[in-house]
Amino acid sequence: MASLAGMLKAKGYAITGSDKNIYPPMSDLLHSLEIPIFEGYLPDHLHPAPDLVIVGNVVPRENPEALELGRLQLPYLSFPQAIGHFALKGKQSIVVSGTHGKTTTSSMAAWALETAGMDPGFMIGGIPLNFKKNFKSGTGRHFVIEGDEYDTAFFDKGPKFLHYAPWATILTSIEFDHADIYRDLDHVAQSFRKLIGIIPPDGILIANGDDKTILSEIEMAGCRVETYGFSDKNRWRPADIMVDERATRVTIMKDGKRYLTLVTPVYGQHNISNLLSTIVLGHRLGISPELLVKSAKTFRGVKRRQEIVGEKNGILILDDFAHHPTAVRETIGAVREKYRDRRIMAIFEPRSNSSRRNIFQDTYAQSFDMAHVVMIPEPSLMEKIDEAERFSSRKLVSDLQKRSLSAFYFETTDNLLDAIATTAKRGDVLLIMSNGGFDNIHQRLMKIL
After folding, report:
1. Is 213 helix (H, G, I), strand (E, B) or coil?
2. What confidence score (pLDDT) does residue 416 get?
3. Helix 269-284 × helix 289-298 angle, to 10°
4. Is residue 258 classed as helix, strand or coil in its secondary structure?
5. What interhelical angle do 441-448 and 413-423 show, nearest 10?
6. How many CB atoms lie within 10 A of CB 334?
7. Closest listed residue to residue 423, CA positions, set 386, 379, 366, 373
8. Sites in the chain below the pLDDT cut of 70
9. Which residues contact 99 (CB under 8 A, 6 or more apart)?
10. What is the DSSP string of 122-189?
């Protein structure tokens, strides 16, 4: 929603917005764009009446502004409808989808096209550091958009990405997530099946061939399919990977033969996989290997994706958006590999709709093995979850301790900060994982240290 607001402001529209909680990096972006934000939801925010209201999917039917919208009978669109109308008309849409890796992969794809001089448009859920904003109209033919499987709006329960008319689709993974709207893995897969079904015959599906669910779904694709991944069965795969604190070096193989060798600041198996998918896209778009190597080398990452917040007294603070058990496991593993001589302290806030439910309670116990120390606070907003469905931080910590991990539970963020301040030492890496503001823990830690 912040990126759409920015794009509409750039097109000359007067924009305001409402949100319950506003925090960086999007609050900083909106402030820099001089877009006024109302904190909280009130009917008065729709007076004087705007020409159009765009409704985000976090807004329920009983929201005070949604009710006022209906009473005033104002024109309205969902976020994906607005994207289709204001951003995608006349463009070739490149939709990056999957349970994990969408934001990083979208950012890599947009930067590859930008490096090649193709001036792409894009709209991304995070802020790519190369662009310092997460939207751009672009004068080029292509538009890169992060395709979310979450529902569209309270008046449209279908997934967002079905509104994006994909010409090319990158599909990174299909796992069970969003337990508040999906019943099980097959229910999730049904949405991706629909996405695959709307790719035109002259389009392309770039699919992670290491994902068994994806492999079963792409059999019905009516377009060209290119598979990528670490398995030898994939047409595109990485080889000869070398990682240190400075960079990652990797050779990309196509049909068993060397296609290119690149050096990049990104690290971790999941990010190498994400980068590989954008190499396949670049090849399809006719971008030269030399320019693809250049884009990989100069890619600076994304805010809140293994982002270095700062280093104080030899203690490094990283910020990451990881919240699904797989993302938590892969992120910790990547950080452990890169900073192999340092102690990794994993600090995890269960905050997403799924992570605050017990659907992943046992799975999380397998996600922290690569951390030296694990710290988990009590989740917030638990009153919104049915008591029988609630996740337990206490139980997770107990389960981790039973597996001989050094794990600790904290009732509040303040308690957690006190513990970090007394136990962190020079050389440690503090990996903070949350898909929310986490009580501004990052900057508070920098101040404490």
Report:
1. helix
2. 95
3. 140
4. strand
5. 40
6. 23
7. 373
8. none
9. 149, 172, 173, 174, 175, 177, 188, 324, 326
10. EE-SS-BTTTTSSEE--SSSEEEEEE--SEEETTEEEEGGGGS-EEEEEE-------TTT--SHHHHH
Encoding tokens for residue 394? 């206490």
How many angstroms separate the CA atoms of 160 and 93, rounded?
14
Provide the residue type at 90 as one letter: G
Q: What is the spatial distance between Cα 289 and Cα 402, in angstroms, rounded to a whole number?
A: 49
Domains and CATH numbers, the chain: 2-74 (3.40.50.720), 87-298 (3.40.1190.10), 307-448 (3.90.190.20)
Q: What is the pTM of this model?
A: 0.83
Cβ count within 10 A of residue 198 = 16
pLDDT digits (tens, 9 = 90+) for 26-69: 788 899 999 999 999 999 999 999 999 999 999 999 999 999 99
Q: Are 284 and 204 in contact (CB under 8 A)?
A: yes
Contact partners, residue 403, CB within 8 Å, separation at least 6: 365, 369
3-class secondary structure, 37: strand
* Cα distance between residue 372 and residue 349, in whole Å: 17
| Contacts of residue 90, Cβ cutoff 8 Å, sequence gap at least 6 | none
CB-count burial class (<10 Å; 0-12, 13-18, 19+) for 76: middle
**pLDDT value of residue 211:** 94
Q: What is the pLDDT of residue 112?
A: 98
Contact status, residue 108 vs residue 278, Cβ threshold 8 Å: yes
Mention every residue, 6+ apart, whose C-beta is less than 8 A from residue 134: 2, 3, 6, 29, 122, 123, 124, 125, 126, 127, 128
- Considering only CA atoms, which of 379, 373, 413 is closest in space to residue 393? 379
